[in-house]
Every structure is written in C-alpha cells, then in structure tokens.
Design goal:
This protein is mainly beta. The protein is built from four helices and nine strands, in the order H-E-E-E-E-E-E-H-H-E-E-E-H. A nine-stranded mixed β-sheet has the order 3-4-2-1-7-8-9-6-5. A hairpin with a 2-residue loop joins strand 3 and strand 4. 14% of the residues are buried.
C-alpha cells in the first residue's frame, strides 16, 4: 500500500484526479474484496469486484494514521437471498478485519495514458473490526447493515470488560469478591481506620 506522498506532486496538482473506495472484509469463510464501481478492478495486486451502487458507506471521520470511530455499511435494497444469508452470522463476521482504501485515478486522457488509469497504490484510510450484522425486513423493503469499529474506538473501555460481579466471575470462576458491588450503588461507604 502506498501513501499520498509517494505520488509525484505534478500528478496531484493537475486537478484531473478522482478517487474511489476499495474495501476488504475478511469474513471467516468467504473474504470479500469490493469497490464502489462496476466490474473487476485490480489495484495494489488485489482484485476487487465492483458493487456499483448496491452498498452504501456511512460518513467517516478520517485522521492521519488513526482509525477511530465506526463505519456503517448498508445494503438498502437487499434481496431475500441476501437477507437469508445475513441471519446468524456472528461467527462469520464478529471481530473480523475490515479495511477501507482510497484509490486515485486519472479523469482525463493525456498522451498514451487513458482516463480511469489508476494512480499509485491504494491508500489505507480505515482499519477496524466488524460486528453486528443485522437485517431488517418489511413487506415493502429489506435492508442489511454491518458495522466496523476502528482501532481507537475501544480506547476508553477496560481491557476485559466492566468491573461487575458477572465479569469478575467470568474471568475467575468461583470468585465472589465483587458480589456486593451492586448493593453499594448510591450508598456512601465510610472506612474506619483500624486500631
């Protein structure tokens, strides 16, 4: 994968460059590589299948070198077959890697270079973990949503969950050290120094 600074300035400053989105979703049994266009596309040595306008991607907050936050993928007009495959996919989806890239391309012909020619390798803009694939069906429509969470989206969470009695017993079976914690909510505890 390249970075924007690997592309010569004269190409970037001409104003005839556009970009598209590439996505790699490492589902357990059937990894997917797709892009927001039509037909197959080979970029950075990887082949991506075009999805056209079938898949929608939520707005992303992009910061240099970081992938905080969450990205939501949706298929607003899913087929009944897609919805049927979506159900009970936690093992296939949850905590699996998801990457999103920009791919720059030329918008005009110049000399022997054709419009649509790729410029540089894909540029990574998001790396995260997928979870919570779900479908919604009504008599009039069907949709599928999948969320991916960036590396820093879990920054403020404890490493092994919350400090509750249930979490403590899951980590250390038989430990009752936090059993009274729930009863102490909204109570003041006065510690009396020992003599």
């Amino acid at each position: 994968m390249s970075a924007i600074h690997d592309i010569p300035d004269e190409q970037l400053r001409r104003g005839d460059i556009a970009c598209t989105i590439l996505c790699q979703m490492d589902f357990r049994a059937n990894p997917q590589r797709w892009w927001l266009g039509y037909g197959p596309l080979t970029a950075g040595g990887v082949e991506y299948q075009g999805t056209g306008d079938v898949i929608k991607i939520s707005a992303m907050n992009i910061t240099y070198g970081m992938s905080a936050g969450m990205v939501r993928f949706s298929i607003p007009n899913a087929s009944p077959e897609m919805v049927a495959r979506c159900d009970n996919q936690a093992v296939e989806v949850n905590n699996r890697l998801c990457r999103i890239f920009y791919q720059l391309f030329s918008t005009i012909e110049r000399g022997d270079d054709h419009a649509g020619r790729l410029i540089g390798d894909p540029i990574s803009i998001f790396t995260g973990r997928m979870r919570d694939m779900r479908s919604t069906s009504t008599p009039d429509s069907r949709s599928i949503e999948l969320e991916a969470y960036g590396r820093l989206s879990r920054q403020g969470k404890p490493a092994y969950g919350r400090w509750t009695d249930a979490d403590q017993r899951a980590r250390y079976p038989g430990d009752t050290g936090l059993g009274l914690l729930a009863s102490l909510r909204d109570k003041s505890v006065v510690w009396v120094p020992g003599s």
